[in-house]
Amino acid sequence: MPSNEGWLDRFVDGLPSNPLFMFLARRVLVPYWAWRTPVTPQPGGPRVSIQPGDNVQCMMNLIMPLKDKSPIGRANAAMAISQYKDEIYAGLDNVGTVHFARFVIVDDNICMFSVYDGDFTNYIRDFITTIGSVFNAVVELVEEGEAVIPCEQNVEAFIEWVHARDMYQVPDLATDILKDQKGDKAGSSPDDLRKLPREVVLQLRANPNVSLGGGYRAYPGYSAAQVRQKFGVGW
Amino acid sequence: MSTAFDHADVQGNILRGYRQRRVRHLVLEIADRTAARRWLAATVSDNGDGVPQITREGRERWTTKPDTCFNIGLTFEGLAKLGTPSISLDMFPKEFVEGMNASAIKLGDVGSSAPENWPAPFNEPKRIHLVASIYASEIAQLDRVQHQALGDGKALKLLGACDGWISRDNHVHFGYRDNIAQPRFAEIHGPEDHADGQPRAPLGTVLLGYPTNFEGLTWRVPERVGHNGSFNAFRVLAQDVAGFEAYLTETATYLLTHPDVDELLPPGAEANIGEGLSRHAALREVVAAKMCGRWRSGAPLALSPDKPTHNVTANNFDYVGEDASRCPYGAHIRRSNPRGGQIVQRVANHSRRLVRRGMPYGPDYDPTRPDTKERGLLGNFLGANISAQFEAMTYDWINLGLQDPRVTGSNDPLLGANDPATSWFDLPLKSGTTIRLRGLPRFVTTRGGAYTFLPSLSAIRFLGALQN
Amino acid sequence: MGNSSVAKQLVDAIISDFPDHEPGTRPVHTIGVGVEGYFVASEVARTYCIAEHFNGERIRASVRFSNGSGSPVQHDGRSDVRGMATRFHLKNDAATDLIAMTLSEFFVRTVEEFLDFTKASLPKPVQKESPWRKLLDMLQLKLPLPDPMPGQTMGADAGMLDYANRHAFAQLGISQAATIGAPTSYARASYHAVHTFIVTAPDGTRRPVRFSWQPVAGVHVTGPNEPPRDNYLQQELRERLRQWPARFMLMMTIGEAGDALDDPTRPWSDRRVRVVMGTLTLTKVAADQAAASEHISFNPCRLLPGIEVSGDPILQARRDAYEVSRELRHATACPFNRS
User: Fold this and answer.
1) Beta-strand pair C124-125/C95-101
2) Which is deepest, A136, B45, B354, B365, by most CB within 10 Å?
3) Residue contacts between B and C (CB atoms, under 8 Å)
4) Burial of residue B210, with CB atoms counted within 10 A of its CB: 0-12 exposed, 13-18 middle, 19 or more buried
5) Alpha helices in C121-271 (DSSP H)
6) Cβ contacts (< 8 Å) between A217 and chain C: which residues?
7) For chain A, how far is it from start to end, CA to CA, in angstroms?
8) Which residues constitute the domain of residue C28?
9) Which residues contact A92 (CB under 8 A, 6 or more apart)?
């Protein structure tokens, strides 16, 4: 075997970890393919389904960039939440469909991660009714938040705004990403499976913040009220 | 923002029902924008040029009912086709803009009910611009008004028509008396009129521009066309009467030998259910009542748990502090309107109420001569916000059952998207045990529909006067 | 048996995918090892299924782990699906089998599709892709074709990939099979029965379910950059079981209306109710491997009152296909339980 072919083989096999190639991939290849084969950002939240198991323990992963990207800004956000703790708890109890919810500050973002039952719009709308004042206080600190507060008077717009900041949930099965991108059109011809890595890279470029899959559940298939009822603590 | 309420600005049949015997819904496409605008202007002009006049609400219930009534609803495509200014169009809510087809999964319109299976004219939703509804007591009257409405055909093209009629006193094809409970409004009903154990509904339950059932929340009112308007989910719902009666029969057979059946129907109580009924026939009626929440006569289980004695239009009850052996927590009327009863989404009590203006369609079903003709209900479900009321109720109350952990995972026995392999319905008994019924098939199939906006008279005037 | 010609076709089609197949051996999952152990159902298992092995007693179990390939040449370290076939021994010589593999779905939905698939998977000559070709793929951010294993001259990967690209339903199974790798131990992999069964509860409720074995020790695959070893799994198992037993949890997922019941190419969402049905404890590698690994014959349709097959056409076809294969290799028959 000619020696230069062996050398080329080894070189090409080593490319994925070659820093120069990685730089080329990041700066040139990805933007090129993003332009050539554009990929639309996917909407956030779980897919609509009518099956009972798919409608309990739904994940919301909300990322809201703060206007004031400094420790003071973060402190303001933290205080807004702690000041309203009673309201938040009363609201969560009375919405009735929330399993878990927490506010988290990551870098310059105030995030809310929650597990809830049922439809996203009903959940947010019921929240607006009970803890609208908390939302107003928090969203005021968030980029592009003024457009939708006071949320009680901008209900539809506020729901859309929250939905737009809920992370895309990358499907558990990699091949389903291709389906999402096609929009689930029945009868469309399947893609070349070897393009899957590129489609994943481009999708994560369009949706930089994603939830990987729907998440693990220790006791899937049960609503918050069912859990409370079965454990005898009232619902 | 809630101004003094002008009844005459609101279309009729929203706040008060007409109680006419017949209806015809004309599904229309706008053929020519200018002609359509002229047509709209003519419907509210009081001189008409032969075009039927929009019936409006009145301060008092009318003393003499008019022969015919006429009302219109516009889809988003219709509003756009008319050239409604985009500043107004942009303020309409997303579910209305995307249309009922886009909400198919949310509404349980899957499988046989999926929009792909809808017949004309509902198979081309983008062409549906306007639904004009004619109410009358005779077919000849419907024909006459239709003829007047279509005129020379320049403005509007007829895509299809749906006729409904009430043949027996307010009974629907499943045999129940319908149309008993509707929201009462302070601007219309006195405090003791039709007392129903529920608070009177704020106008914002069904009209845009007023305080809503949600404390502190108001819906966006589209510029110039929104105020005093309402949204309607128009649904053509086919009812499988043969399947329903067959299910009652096979369930009654199953129950006859069930160990707990005597609790459900004490031996000897058959005569209470109906004269001369066998135990099997009486059980059928008991099951039918439990599935609906009312006996077929209309008497509510909450007031008449053991026999249909109560005044059939009795409506003054609530589900508070009573035990579920009276009205099962999964019964249709309770699932769709839990009143003050305990529900998971505590803030939502009374918030998803709807005004219902439906009428049966199709020939009466004769059990001695069973047939497979299509029959059902032409449903109109009115509210000020489709997503907050109709969709919310359908998605997680009618189906899924999230409002009560004891029904979560099951669908409405009459209306739900049931699959006989997995469906179930519980009959709670006084002693605390439950009989679980299984194998409920899907009794109601969606055959078409559209989300329409019912503009106020001034909005119609505005649309009729558009010039561009 | 009425379907034996279809079954024979299936068996022949599978064998054709492994040109060096030895007559008298299984058409796939040829190389394996028999293990002994016992199964104890959880306290809730019998509320979902009346079948005898869920009654809570200690049930003797025979398990055969295997490599998916139908070739007689052992290559433990190559990327390959693994199998775990379990027989639950019951009173009066009755038995029920549960056959599972490390792939959570199958490639095809029907017998016709399976025959097409086996044709597409006929091994073809493989050679390393030219580096220019690989470079072109990388510039397109595409996966280059994997290099053949050292010494491999024929391969089915290209054919399977081509089949997947033409049939959307096969994409998941084939892409997962291509990247499945090799476990470090038979006891450190998850095995899935894939097909839907219908279980009957004491009150008569019937539920569509799917079974999976979850290793208590956890899943562990060999690193992708390690050079593959040809023969280590059986020895590893012997040594492991000498030290301590290997345990698997039997997980049963309950399907809902709208789930793909009869379609084995679609795994179920993990948002379905998941029931722990019991624990399998493996104690030692069987002394008589001829009986425990070669002559034994499992059948996915060897069931009991309380478990039935669903309408899955592949599951139903497997019943006769396994019988034909058993006859061809003169393995021991286990009479089907008369109910």
Assistant:
1) unpaired
2) B354
3) 10
4) buried
5) 131-139, 157-166, 171-178, 233-243
6) 270-271
7) 75
8) 4-121+168-328
9) A98, A101
What ipTM is given for this predicted complex? 0.90
Split into its structural domains, chain C has a count of 1
Q: Are the beta carbons of B217 and A225 separated by less than 8 Å?
A: no
Q: Bridge partners of C154?
A: C125
Neighbours of A175 (CB within 10 A): 20
Tell me what pLDDT residue C336 has.
59
Please answer whether residues A82 and A74 qualify as being in contact, where contact means their C-beta atoms are separated by less than 8 angstroms: no
Smallest CA–CA separation between B397 and chain A, in Å?
Answer: 10
A5 vs C8: which has the higher pLDDT: C8
Cβ within 8 Å, pair A29-C175: no
Which chains have at least 3 CB atom pairs separated by less than 8 Å from chain A? B, C
Nearest residue of chain C to residue B417 (CA atoms): C257
Residue A127 shares a structural domain with residue A114: yes
CA distance linking residue C54 with residue B45, whole number of Å: 77
| A15 contacts on C by Cβ (under 8 Å) | 135, 138
Provide the CATH number for the domain around residue C276.
Answer: 2.40.180.10
pLDDT at B49: 66
Domain containing B124 equals: 1-468
Q: How many domains does chain B have?
A: 1
Using DSSP, state whether A66 is helix, strand or coil: strand
Structure token digits, residue A115? 């597990």
Q: Are A97 and A223 in contact (CB under 8 A)?
A: yes
Q: Is residue C315 in some structural domain?
A: yes
Could you identify the residue written with the tokens 């703060």? A66
Q: Chain B partners of C256 at a C-beta cutoff of 8 Å?
A: 422
Q: Do B344 and A154 touch (CB under 8 A)?
A: no
Distance between CA atoms of residues B37 and C16, nearest Å: 73
C149 has a pLDDT exceeding 80: no
How does pLDDT run across C161-177, given as a tens digit for each residue?
Answer: 889 889 989 988 988 88
Contact state of A53 with C272 under an 8 Å Cβ cutoff: yes
**Would C154 be classed as within a structural domain?**
no
Interface residue ranges in chain C relative to chain A, Cβ cutoff 8 Å: 128, 131-132, 134-135, 137-143, 145, 161, 164-168, 171-172, 174-175, 254, 256-259, 267, 269-274
Q: Min CA distance, A179 vs chain C (Å)? A: 10
Residue type, C61: A
- Which bin fits C123, alpha (ψ -120 to 50), beta or left (φ > 0)? beta
Domain count along chain A: 2
Q: Is residue C333 part of a domain?
A: no
Domain match, A46 and A26 both: no
Q: Which domain holds residue A228?
A: 41-235
Q: Which amino acid is located at B266 in the chain?
A: P
Which residue shows structure tokens 């206007």? A67
Residue A190 has a pLDDT of 60
Q: What is the CA angle C326-C329-C335, rounded to 5?
A: 30
- CB nearest to C143's CB, from A8, A53, A194: A194
Q: Which of A48, A95, A125 sits opposite B388 (nearest CB)?
A: A125
Of all residues in chain C, the one with the smallest CA distance to A197 is: C142
Strands (E), B150-191: 156-165
Query: Is C18 exposed, middle or buried, given 0-12, 13-18 or 19+ CB atoms closer than 10 A?
Result: buried
Q: What is the pLDDT of residues B95-117, one digit of tens each?
A: 999 999 999 999 999 999 999 99
d(CA C45, CA C276): 7
Length of chain B measured in residues: 468
